[in-house]
Amino acid sequence: MNTTDKIYVAGGSGMVGSAIIRSLQAKGFTNIISKSIEELDLCNQQAVNDFFSKEQPDYVFLAAAKVGGIHANSIYPAQFIYNNLMIECNIIEAARQKNVKKLLFLGSSCIYPKMAPQPIKEEYLLSGPLESTNEAYAIAKIAGVELCRFYRREYGCNFISVMPANLYGINDNFDLQNSHVLPALIRKFHEAKLSNAQEVVIWGSGMPLREFLYVDDLADACLFLMQCYNGEEHINVGCGEEIEIRELAVLVKKIVGFEGAIINDTTKPDGTPRKLLDVSKLHSLGWKHATSLEEGIKRVYEWYTGMI
Fold first, then answer.
1. 172: which DSSP letter?
2. Which residues are catalytic?
3. Residues 78, 82, 88, 92: is their CA dihedral positive or negative?
4. Does the pTM of the predicted model rise above 0.90?
């Protein structure tokens, strides 16, 4: 990519998309376009086609998606599969029709089987049943990976896919009804501190293991891969480190400064017991994450408290 190439970041107002835009700008790219959901409905094929015809982007980062945690995925599975399928199908087909030089599709580590061997290698995709609590979202993301792969085979499109670990960062979603675990914990502990609560209740046993990647590190990896990787196989993007949810809660509690107790609600689901990505392929290409979990959470908490 040249710094003057026209780059479309789909989902540029979201956590991942905004991080990609920050990374592009920091590296001197000047011709970046993005549209809010009010400006462009990505589920509307004609609107997407009209946008691509008008803008003619050279490169596309497909970071747009309907996302949420266990609660939202369990209650709205039809919305998750429909919206995500429509978004990726419309953008990928429009990119093909308008001869986009390269497209990067953002998937999710939930595409892998619930009981996949750990750490999870790229080839474990479609090797077993999915986690039921986010199956609809996972199926849509798997479809996006396969779209890129088959468009490459049939049409010769240089479309690549990356599978990030659990993400967190600036512009995350802190709504307790549909957020992911880390922003939910930040909000819970912060509100508990402000109200002098005696305890904070967290979902599940606290024993599941998760890997967390700071979103600005993901954005840096996406630019790296857009410039140096042209393979058919999707690539995992993570830090290669994991933490128990209960340990994560203790870390967030310390950073926020909450003094009360942590209570586990074991009537709530745990989700996948363990999810650690094998990032050896990415490391072999020359990229590694730069932000520790504690430093990343501190940055997010500082941003969050400055926004509320």
1. -
2. 137
3. positive
4. yes
